[in-house]
Amino acid sequence: MKSLDEFVELFAEQFDETDASEITATTVFHDLEEWSSLIGLSVIAMVDEEFDVALKGDDVKNSVTVEDLYNNVKSKL
What we know:
Distance between the termini: 8 Å
Helix content: 40-55%
Mean pLDDT: 97
Low-confidence stretches: none
CATH superfamily: ACP-like
Number of domains: 1
Strand content: under 5%
CATH architecture: Orthogonal Bundle
Oligomer: single chain
Number of strands: 0
């Protein structure tokens, strides 16, 4: 299992215009200006590729911070 820091880094890579330094474990990612359903799909695809975990849209929607999403992924391993 990758660490939380590695997950945050992979999560931040899904954004084109948001500086990676703006995204931390405690970031409320739904509040990011660039956040969209398309980036949500990119995050789901990244989790599937990197962690072999199938997230659902509700998993992303119900997570508040990046760490919440990481813990959700971890719980499915």
